[in-house]
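Private note to self, pasted from the team thread so I don't lose it. Backbone tokens:
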């Protein structure tokens, strides 16, 4: 019998990371992967569409935790995953990224003696007010095998004193999905549907608490975006959290349908990839989109004051602009005037990171 490994996913950015790793593990045919979905994201547009498009099979286990405060959500995942692991212990539990599902499942498993593999280990924003930073630190502290996506991860883990033998630089599995899906994204009809085919436009997304939870900050960001949208239209797929914050503060009625700032529902993976690839620039606070724009060499205004993905700034096409309207305006102008780095290729962001993940798993498990 092949050893069972759990692949744990819960929120949208996890699905793009799980899909290629699952394929690579199945290809080697040495392990029995079991998909565990915590249910942290559950809307059709945040969840099912990604499973369908990325060809991820129905999860073996669904924990159905839904939304809640950080404590409540993390606790529900912890309790339900623990109960699952007690009944069906895997040989290892593979967790991805930095969402609440990542840390909660790692904690449940490690306490039951199940070793943790962390894909996308070592990233640090050095900003402990971010829930994701706490999730990263704790998950790495529990992991037995730490698989790193960019060079800064190696430096961070070394500084934190993590044993060298536990750390492997495998590259970025999210880029594997990008490379795999690009031919399909090129056939997407989203630009026709939004009446943007052949036109210059910008793409904007934001959902981080630091940008959307304070109505004054959110208002400032929307005002500057609406102003810039007069130069070139801005497409804005609104995350449920952002939409809710806008509705609660009266900003939805003020901005929706009133300018070339075009609000749309969260978009499926291939449509989003098409939107990124053809955009003149992207404005975002998403970690994944910082990486995707760097890979595709599209200018990215990162709406944060720090990033756990510094290679996108050092070598890629991203600039940190925070949420100050003036900085955003200036950077927008710089892109339109061509004052922007072309960007370099990033080491091991080559579409084959998942094969290296599967190989490292096999070596680590002595298969
Ligand atoms: C989570 C991750 C974040 C990631 C983001 C991608 C954590 C701490 N944060 O943030 O790192 O970048 O996912 O989307 O894990 N909601 C819905 N439907 C859904 C999911 C959420 O309506 O399917 C709403 C709920 O009101 C919920 C809120 O969005 O309370 C926040 O959802 P949650 O999963 O807690 O965090 P995200 O902001 O999505």
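Design output:
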């Amino acid at each position: 019998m092949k050893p069972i490994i759990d692949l744990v996913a819960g929120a949208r950015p996890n699905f793009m990371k799980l899909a290629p790793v699952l394929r690579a593990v199945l290809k080697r045919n040495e392990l029995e992967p079991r998909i565990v979905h915590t249910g942290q994201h559950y809307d059709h547009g945040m969840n099912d569409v990604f499973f369908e498009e990325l060809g991820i099979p129905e999860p073996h286990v669904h924990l159905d935790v839904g939304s809640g405060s950080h404590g409540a959500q993390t606790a529900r995942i912890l309790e339900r995953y623990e109960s699952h692991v007690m009944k069906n212990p895997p040989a290892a539990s593979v967790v991805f990224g930095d969402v609440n599902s990542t840390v909660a499942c790692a904690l449940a498993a490690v306490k039951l003696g199940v070793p943790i593999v962390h894909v996308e280990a070592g990233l640090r924003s050095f900003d402990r007010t971010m829930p994701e930073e706490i999730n990263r630190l704790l998950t790495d502290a529990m992991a037995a095998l730490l698989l790193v996506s960019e060079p800064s991860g190696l430096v961070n883990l070394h500084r934190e004193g993590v044993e060298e033998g536990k750390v492997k630089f495998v590259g970025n599995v999210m880029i594997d999905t990008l490379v795999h899906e690009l031919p399909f994204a090129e056939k997407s009809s989203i630009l026709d549907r939004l009446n943007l085919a052949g036109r210059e436009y910008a793409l904007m997304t934001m959902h981080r608490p630091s940008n959307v939870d304070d109505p004054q900050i959110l208002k400032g960001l929307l005002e500057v975006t609406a102003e810039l949208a007069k130069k070139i239209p801005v497409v804005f797929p609104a995350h449920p959290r952002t939409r809710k914050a806008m509705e609660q503060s009266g900003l939805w009625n003020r901005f929706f349908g009133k300018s070339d700032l075009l609000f749309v529902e969260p978009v499926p993976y291939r449509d989003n990839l098409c939107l990124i690839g053809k955009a003149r620039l992207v404005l975002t606070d998403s970690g994944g989109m910082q990486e995707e724009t760097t890979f595709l060499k599209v200018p990215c205004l990162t709406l944060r004051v720090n990033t756990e993905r510094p290679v996108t700034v050092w070598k890629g096409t991203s600039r940190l602009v925070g949420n100050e309207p003036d900085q955003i305006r200036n950077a927008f102008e710089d892109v339109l005037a061509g004052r922007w780095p072309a960007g370099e290729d990033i080491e091991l962001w080559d579409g084959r990171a998942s094969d290296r993940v599967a190989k490292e798993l096999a070596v680590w498990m002595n298969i």
